[in-house]
Here is the input.
Amino acid sequence: MIKPHSKTISAIRSRLLAWYDQNARDLPWRTPPYLSEIDRQSQATNLPGAYHTLVSEAMLQQTQVATVIPYFHRFLDTFPTLKSLAQADEQQVLTLWQGLGYYRRARNLHACANVIMSEHQGQIPHTVDELLKLPGIGQYTAGAIASIAFNQPAPILDGNVIRILSRIFFITDPTDHTPIKKQLWSLAEQLVPETSGRPGDYNQSMMELGALICSPRNPNCNTCPLQKLCKAYADGSPESLPITLPKSKPRPVHHHILAIQHPSKPNTYFFEQRPSTGLWSNMYQLPTLELNHNKDFESDQLITYIQKHLKIKTKNITQLKTFKHQTTHLTITFHLHAITPTSIPTKLKPNTAWRSLTKLTDLPLSNPQQQATKCLSVQ
Ligand code: SF4
Here is the structure.
């Protein structure tokens, strides 16, 4: 286990905080204009509101700051308090999240708000242990909320922190290997200051240094406050760290999107809700046949599928567009087909609807489904 000298720990803390005081970006969740009653209480101690930290941390997972900012404003305009979020319909939350991706974060955030309202009298818990019991809150997010919103000495470890620590302490083993990950958590724990030493600002300074200076490919070591302490800089090739285990390649699959146009209503298509589990769960889509293998599909097989599963008869299928979408584990080739039905069922199944393309704003659609509907709009 790496045990830094107490002088090294003090130097890292003081240099980072001094740099952060001069260079921290003015981000909306750091100086929130939206204040609920609970948030006003934490504002009295100059800490960002816990609700804003909760929302921003959910949005910032896997997503760049610049992308998150407009979503954060829209979200807070619609749900200014934890209570208003808890009272919202999940479909409304998903629609607001549309375009940010990783929709499980939105579902968990909504579930979190409900649990906090029902089990914690609307007060976001202060400690890592209590925060970890909430839906979708892992060790990193619990540490971020406890330290940033409540000034608790809780460590955080995300991609930025891993990169900085592996460079400063010259960790040349794969950082995603479990024993090395444990070492990194232990390092983060040793480094985070006590409450009197501004643990929230310290954690944010780490994230900020990773975002602005200690970047993955071109770290700007000449402006880095930690340069004198950094072993990878002294070694001469900091960009070669961190090392990670080789990743398995995403699996290629084919998804066929069936754009079924209403026979008598122009610009109107058939939509259905996705299942409640799995990718893009509970969101809406043009019916999509997901093939779990890398083989294409013939149009007569599609016609049979449409008839059997959607009870819609058709003779013509026109392929409109093919595009790719990348997820963590899959490379999905989407094939968009235009379908003109010869007959449609008189009664709709639950969670299905005919919708005009001009009236989709309240229907949560995944990014590929939005791409498909945009393509239909310009046909
Ligand atoms: S000196 Fe360079 S590599 Fe080391 S922490 Fe600073 S920016 Fe990163």
Remarks:
- The chain has two domains: 6-240, 251-377.
- The CA atoms of residues 95 and 274 lie 14 Å apart.
- The first strand starts at residue 251 and ends at 260.
- Residues 251-377 form a domain with the Nucleoside Triphosphate Pyrophosphohydrolase fold (CATH 3.90.79.10).
